[in-house]
Design a protein that fits this description.
Layout (H helix, E strand, L loop, with lengths): L21 E2 L6 H7 L1 E10 L5 E6 L6 E6 L12 E8 L8 E10 L2 E4 L1 E3 L1 H6 L6 E8 L2 E9 L6 E7 L10 E9 L8 E9 L1 H6 L5 E5 L10 E5 L5
Parallel strand pairs: 4-6, 7-13, 8-11, 12-14
Antiparallel strand pairs: 1-6, 2-3, 2-5, 3-4, 5-6, 9-10, 10-13, 11-12, 14-15
């Protein structure tokens, strides 16, 4: 469990994972896939004793956590606890214990990280390349981002950052973070789909009185909307 917001920025120079669907074997009938397919960002929970892949899914805010069981995918490519978008359809509806059996048809890599801090000087040095935001939402302790980012020919810095000066006063009831996509001076090309999921648990551990997280974005789709606010997750 995270003890607090003590994850420095300097380790976060990452390539962005753009949309690419890794197909799963045994697709089933085309009608099942195209008529009922769903895509959700989930947490990989490992392989059950019965050899079934387990994923936990929380739709939005503090909605119930659902366990998704995928018997047709048993590879050990993923690490337990990582966030990933899956493409699937349901084989059986939810049971009384909030478990659903699914058939995986694709795995979509997702940029998965924790909310981080940066010094005021570092924040001034960063350039936030404009994004084309499709949606941003909270599911439990995670902030999920569905957006278009400009492609580059090299690595970039993508992060959800809090000003480190905020750490000098942990009595804040509202904390601001900034979504940064810094292409580090590289040439930018066309926009492509990307998915991200940021763990905010360190924030709530650091600021016990905080009940609101405000996230600033540089968005081309809705340029008049400068930020989005999210409530504290239940239980944190």
């Amino acid at each position: 469990m995270h003890k607090g917001l003590h994850i420095p920025l300097y380790v976060l120079i990452l390539p962005v994972i753009f949309l690419s669907i890794v197909a799963c074997r045994d697709y089933g009938s085309p009608g099942d896939i195209y008529n009922n397919v769903m895509r959700d960002i989930v947490t990989y929970e490992g392989i059950s004793d019965g050899g079934v892949s387990l994923f936990s899914y929380q739709a939005h805010d503090d909605s119930p956590v659902i366990t998704l069981e995928a018997g047709n995918y048993t590879d050990t490519l993923w690490t337990k606890g990582m966030r990933i978008m899956i493409q699937y359809y349901e084989l059986e509806p939810l049971s009384g214990n909030s478990t659903s059996q699914i058939h995986l048809t694709g795995l979509i890599p997702t940029l998965w990280d924790s909310l981080r801090y940066a010094s005021p000087r570092k924040l001034q040095q960063l350039t936030s390349n404009p994004i084309k935001l499709n949606s941003i939402w909270r599911s439990g302790k995670y902030i999920n981002v569905n957006t278009l980012l400009q492609t580059t020919d090299s690595t970039r810095l993508v992060a959800l950052l809090v000003n480190s000066e905020e750490l000098t006063n942990n009595t804040h009831t509202k904390v601001k973070a900034t979504f940064i996509d810094d292409i580090l001076g590289r040439p930018a090309f066309f926009y492509r789909q990307a998915y991200m999921s940021f763990d905010t648990e360190p924030l709530w551990a650091t600021f016990p009185n905080c009940d609101t997280l405000e996230i600033e974005v540089n968005d081309l789709r809705f340029p008049n909307v400068k930020s989005y606010t999210f409530s504290r997750p239940k239980g944190l």
